[in-house]
Each structure stands twice: as C-alpha cells, then as structure tokens.
C-alpha cells in the first residue's frame, strides 16, 4: 500500500479567454478590433505620455499554449486617427468589424 495520495493534475483551460491585456507601465487599451473568426485581434493603446500605439495578437490553438500571443511589433502614433489609418491598411478585415471601446481612465475596481 502506497502512503501518498495521488494529486490531481490541473488541465489546461479549453475555453478561450477574451480578457483585455493589462499593462503595468501606464498603457491603457482603449479600443479592440476582433477578426470575425475570433483568432486575431488588434488593440489601440493610450500611452502614459499621451501618444498611442497598437498591439496585434493572435490566438494559438497549440496543445500547451491555448492563449493569446502578441506580435511584439509596436509603432507609436501622435493621434488615434493616425494609428487607425495605419492599421486598417495592414489588416483589411478591420473594416468589416465594429470595435469594442473602453474608457481611457483606469478603474480602481478590483
């Protein structure tokens, strides 16, 4: 008889989390476009100093990932309009979807 109990192994979540990213350096995502198939999304982010940037993410369906992965390529823009104009040229599917919008002020809710 074995003296130790076998622990249950935590399984990877099978459902997709669509939570917005949280940045510790004062960047606030204010708008998100999600591709119609749900596997790609682009965020418009307001930076602490008042400029804007974009973040492109894709969803990995690999067995041990099953998560959103960022591209790591970020450009800085002076206005949201210039950022949107640039990314709609790069990602034509953005014209087909309506963006989800959030306030630029972070909430203190926990």
Structural class, by secondary structure, is: mainly beta
Radius of gyration: 18 Å
Number of helices: 1
Let me know the average pLDDT.
84
Q: N-to-C SSE series?
A: EEEEEHE
The number of distinct β-strands equals 6
Q: Helix content range of the residues, please?
A: 10-25%
- Low-confidence sequence ranges: none
Shape: elongated
For the largest beta-sheet, the strand count, sense and barrel status come to: 6 strands, antiparallel
Strand content: 25-35%
Distance between the termini: 47 Å
Write the SSE topology.
Blueprint (H helix, E strand, L loop, with lengths): L27 E7 L5 E7 L5 E9 L6 E4 L5 E2 L2 H11 L9 E2 L9
TL;DR?
The protein is built from 1 helix and 6 strands. It has 110 residues and is mainly β. It starts with 27 loop residues before the first strand and ends in a 9-residue tail after the last strand.
Describe the model.
The chain is mainly beta and 110 residues long. The chain has a domain at 28-101. Helix content is 10%, strand content 28%. A hairpin with a 5-residue loop joins strand 1 and strand 2. The longest helix is centred in the C-terminal third of the chain and has 11 residues, at 80-90. The chain is elongated, with a radius of gyration of 18 Å. The mean pLDDT is 84.
Q: Could you list some keywords that capture this structure?
A:
single chain, 110 residues, mainly beta, six-stranded antiparallel sheet, 6 strands, 10% helix, 28% strand
């Amino acid at each position: 008889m074995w003296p130790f109990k076998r622990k249950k192994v935590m399984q990877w979540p099978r459902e997709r989390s669509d939570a917005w990213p949280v940045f510790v350096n004062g960047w606030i995502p204010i708008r998100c476009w999600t591709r119609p198939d749900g596997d790609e999304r682009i965020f418009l982010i307001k930076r602490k100093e008042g400029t804007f940037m974009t973040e492109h993410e894709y969803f990995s369906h690999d067995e041990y990932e099953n998560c959103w992965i960022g591209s790591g390529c970020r450009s800085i823009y002076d206005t949201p309009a210039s950022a949107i104009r640039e990314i709609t040229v790069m990602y034509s599917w953005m014209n087909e979807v309506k963006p989800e919008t959030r306030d630029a002020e972070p909430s203190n809710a926990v």
